Amino acid sequence: MIDSNIENDYVQDMVNYLILVHEKLSKPFEDCFKEKLSALQFNTLCVLRSYGSLTMRELAERMNLSKQQMTKIIAKLVKINFAERNYDKDDRRIIKISATKEADEYIKLESKAFARRLKDIVNSLNEEDLKDLENAIKSMNKILPKFPKWLSK
Which domain of life is it from (predicted)? Predict the structure, then answer.
């Protein structure tokens, strides 16, 4: 069992880490797309690109949103031709949502621009900081998958 003071330090360190990741990485990454997409729209497209076609229920569950919220997001993405609704040929009540090629191209293009900026920042770090960053990323990639899917549940 971890001492409660140490546990509190872990929690505070994690909160500080999340704030920094948002400020230094997540927000600038989302800003690359804000001309056309909200953060939720962008995240929706990322989920669709990762998992392929999903029903509205499946997508809402993966995003931890209600179906009503998801419906509004998808409507906007369909309107700008970044998502499409595909009806099941055997049961038209089943509708699968998928990202379009246009969405894929847009995300790839903007992601490359962000990657170039990130590369410039990483290249400005000294060797010791680069090694620390590499180890920290490897550690987080090893540990974070062990966290429960949704901390709010």
Answer: Bacteria
Q: Work out the average pLDDT over 105-114.
A: 89
23: in domain:
no
Answer whether residue 24 is part of any domain.
no
Cα(55)–Cα(91) distance, integer angstroms: 13
**Residue 134: domain span:** 32-146
First to last CA, the chain: 23
- The residue ranking higher by pLDDT, 131 or 8, is 131
CATH number for the domain spanning 129: value is: 1.10.10.10
What is the sign, positive or negative, of the torsion defined by CA atoms of 56, 44, 66, 79?
negative
Q: How far apart are CA 69 and CA 78, in angstroms?
A: 14
Residue 130's pLDDT is 93
Domain count, the chain: 1
The predicted model gives 130-149 an average pLDDT of 89
**What's the average model confidence in pLDDT over 109-127?**
89
Q: What percent of the chain is predicted at pLDDT more than 70?
A: 93
Of the CA atoms within 13 Å of residue 51, those in its CB half-sphere come to 18
